């Protein structure tokens, strides 16, 4: 059994079951690159302020490099008795660099060390998430741009409502993911704060230079309050909140892709490379990617709830409970990045069945609002027009026809304001293109939105 760096006051050896129960190396080992980079910056700073010598820092940096290579190449041996990644690295450093390793932990605690590691890890993952959100937005914009004239039913209550451009529908998701990206960028600013130098909770008596460590590790700021720095994880809760919102958006998109690729809708065909088959039914092509994304949303929301519940009512400062922050955080990061990335790859390859969409937009009285607007344009108050068209809809339903399939005489029966030009007024193109209010579905608006999005993406 390895000797523990903290066992000076202990009269008996730790029970094996305690070692297994408290160990976190199985999952926190993924933090090793950040832990080692943090240690290198820390010992350079200790040399700068005269706590260790230049020769010692050289030995430490070389030793840490050796340990890193072992970890990189999977040649590192883990052992429950060493608890976490920090202790493993320090113990191995003692073996490869000798006694000087005992100086590394001067003016430092694992409490500020883990806060640093998690922040460094999460800032890198947040940057990656921002890149993936951008790729997904680009995929949506390009799919929209490739189909500027495809008209589909817009829905409310999952009932056909009014015709919209499919590009407009896709650009709605562009807006959602743009806000998600902004949330991640905002969150990054609060992750990117350097906590090392807090030590256990109260700061340290050594003349440390925290700004220098921040500079070496490329942090724009250092934490203000030592107790806050080791004991809060709001930066992770914030990331998980933003991640959960993104997953909710992805789940909505996924749900639509599942519906749209059914025989009942038939609006899109998923690329074969992004679908799967059935082990029993030879005809099946299943939308497993959007289904799994939909399913994985619960994991990320669950991780957010796990961290919020973990942190609730924790007294200051560090508590070992907080070791439990890592698995939900890592799982959420892995899940979100996988879901964003597979969607960014799949979306450009979706096949759009324009005629099916158009047919669906032509059936189900999606032009009823426009017929009412036509009457308003000829002087009828809207409520009256609504009632009048409602009667026409009931009549048409009875005849098994659409409004635009009624004869002019039949239509005139509902209002003498109706003329031959109503038919043109009720065509899909006219209905879409009249909706020129800011943010509406007219081709002019949507083409401008696509152009604006392309400019924004090019500038990011
Ligand atoms: N592994 C711990 C964590 O993840 C960090 C070390 C702090 N441990 C301690 N006994 N003070 O939170």
From TrEMBL:
Main location: cytoplasm
A Pfam family of this chain: Lyase_1
InterPro entries on file: Arg_succ_lyase_C (IPR029419), Argininosuccinate_lyase (IPR009049), Fumarase/histidase_N (IPR024083), Fumarate_lyase_CS (IPR020557), Fumarate_lyase_fam (IPR000362), Fumarate_lyase_N (IPR022761), L-Aspartase-like (IPR008948)
Annotated EC: 4.3.2.1
Keywords of the record: Amino-acid biosynthesis, Arginine biosynthesis, Cytoplasm, Lyase
Argininosuccinate lyase C-terminal domain location: 365-433
Catalysed conversion reaction: 2-(N(omega)-L-arginino)succinate = fumarate + L-arginine
GO biological process, one term: L-arginine biosynthetic process via ornithine
A GO cellular component entry from the record: cytosol
Domain Fumarate lyase N-terminal: 8-302
Subcellular localization, as worded in the UniProt entry: Cytoplasm
UniProt key word S-adenosyl-L-methionine: no
Keyword Metal-binding: no
GO terms for MF: argininosuccinate lyase activity
Class of this enzyme: lyase
Pathway: Amino-acid biosynthesis; L-arginine biosynthesis; L-arginine from L-ornithine and carbamoyl phosphate: step 3/3
Similarity remark: Belongs to the lyase 1 family. Argininosuccinate lyase subfamily.
NCBIfam families hit by this protein: argH
The protein, known as: Argininosuccinate lyase
């Amino acid at each position: 059994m390895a000797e523990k760096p903290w066992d000076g006051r202990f009269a008996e050896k730790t029970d094996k079951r305690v070692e297994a129960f408290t160990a976190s190396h199985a999952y926190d080992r993924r933090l090793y690159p950040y832990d080692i980079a943090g240690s290198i910056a820390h010992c350079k700073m200790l040399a700068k302020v005269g706590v260790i010598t230049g020769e010692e820092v050289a030995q430490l940096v070389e030793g840490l490099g050796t340990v890193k290579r072992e970890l990189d190449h999977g040649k590192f041996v883990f052992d429950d008795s060493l608890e976490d990644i920090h202790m493993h690295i320090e113990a191995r450093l003692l073996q490869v660099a000798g006694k000087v390793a005992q100086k590394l932990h001067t003016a430092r605690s694992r409490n500020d060390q883990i806060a640093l590691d998690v922040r460094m890890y999460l800032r890198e993952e947040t940057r990656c998430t921002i890149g993936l959100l951008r790729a997904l937005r680009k995929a949506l914009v390009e799919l929209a741009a490739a189909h500027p004239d495809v008209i589909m039913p817009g829905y409310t209550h999952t009932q056909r409502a009014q015709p919209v451009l499919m590009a407009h529908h896709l650009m709605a998701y562009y807006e959602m993911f743009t806000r998600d990206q902004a949330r991640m960028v905002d969150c990054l600013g609060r992750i990117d704060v350097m906590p090392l130098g807090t030590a256990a909770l109260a700061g340290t008596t050594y003349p440390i230079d925290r700004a220098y460590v921040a500079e070496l590790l490329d942090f724009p700021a250092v934490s203000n309050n030592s107790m806050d720095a080791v004991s809060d994880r709001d930066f992770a809760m914030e990331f998980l909140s933003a991640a959960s919102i993104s997953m909710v958006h992805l789940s909505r998109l996924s749900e639509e892709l599942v519906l749209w690729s059914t025989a009942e809708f038939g609006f899109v065909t998923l690329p074969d490379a992004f679908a799967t088959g059935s082990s029993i039914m030879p005809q099946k092509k299943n939308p497993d990617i959007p289904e799994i994304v939909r399913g994985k949303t619960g994991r990320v929301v669950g991780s957010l709830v796990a961290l919020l519940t973990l942190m609730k009512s924790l007294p200051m400062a560090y508590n070992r409970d907080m070791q439990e922050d890592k698995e939900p955080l890592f799982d959420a990061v892995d899940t979100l990045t996988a879901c964003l990335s597979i969607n960014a790859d799949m979306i450009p390859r979706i096949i759009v069945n324009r005629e099916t969409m158009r047919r669906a937009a032509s059936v189900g009285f999606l032009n009823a609002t426009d017929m009412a607007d036509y009457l308003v344009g000829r002087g009828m108050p809207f409520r009256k027009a609504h009632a009048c068209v409602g009667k026409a809809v009931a009549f048409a339903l009875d005849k098994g026809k659409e409004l635009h399939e009624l004869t002019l005489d039949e239509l005139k029966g509902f209002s003498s304001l109706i003329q031959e030009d109503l038919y043109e007024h009720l065509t899909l193109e006219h209905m879409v293109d009249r909706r020129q209010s800011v943010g509406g579905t007219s081709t002019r608006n949507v083409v401008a939105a696509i152009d604006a999005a392309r400019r924004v993406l090019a500038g990011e």
